[in-house]
Protein: X-Pro dipeptidyl-peptidase
Organism: Enterococcus sulfureus ATCC 49903
Amino acid sequence: MKIFIRIFFVLLFIVVVGLIFAGNYFYNYAVVPSEKSFLESDTPGTKVKKSADQEWFEQATGRTDWHLTAEDGLKLRAIYIPSDSPSTKTALVVHGYMGKADTMAAYAKMYHDMGYNVLVPDARGHGQSEGDYIGFGWHERRDMVGWIDEIIQKNGSDETITLFGISMGAATVMMTAGEPLPKNVVSIVEDCGYASVNEELTYQLKELFGLPAFPLIPVTSLVTKVRANYFFGEADVVKQLHKNQLPILFIHGDADTFVPFHMLDEVYEATNGPKEKWVVPGAEHAKSYAVDPEQYRQKVKAFLEKYN
């Protein structure tokens, strides 16, 4: 009997060590900022007119760096570009997974052409912002609240603010919608955001490795709580949207296989505010702008004119 007990505990120890190793491996693979072999870019839509938009973004009149200290002490950076003529409208433009501010040049230009000031942050762990992990929108939602406060402080109490994000940036602005926000925030536009981190990582684990969610997702979530102070289950866009009353325009390409197209309905049904959705035929992940930039601009402009 004793030998069987010993064998049991040895096997249990091996399993536990193996799970801890696997959890840390997947944490490093998905949560630690680094070059990712499994994606070109989370904001490939910016390839449309990249040269012209990038040149404008780098040389825009009045461009300045803004800085923010996050609630946990990280030093964050954003790029601010004022409208060509005085404006009390600002678009907070949020990049996706492993992007950075300048990958959002096309979208920043789109809002700027509509007469908006634009503020484009480097998310924590990206670009010139500090951080050694990716929050998948959960920690970043609080960073966005900080940037919103910064906009109001610098531009005045009559400023109206639109939140815009692509993919993880879209999930970020939707999670931000569930936070107590000042009345200055008047609308949200999200493009191909996921419904929850658990659901997205479960999908990616199956797509990339052919593995089920259990036990790796729960174990990696525990590792993430220890190393980055959040469980995957906390980062739930749907739950945050249940608390939202702001108008949202939902955009998603029906050929998206990175953030599955069916997640559009999950987030659309979750919100309690005014809402519209636009499905872009044939658009893959984050390529809706690339597929039809003119209609993209028209859809966004028409939506914003209703609420801004």
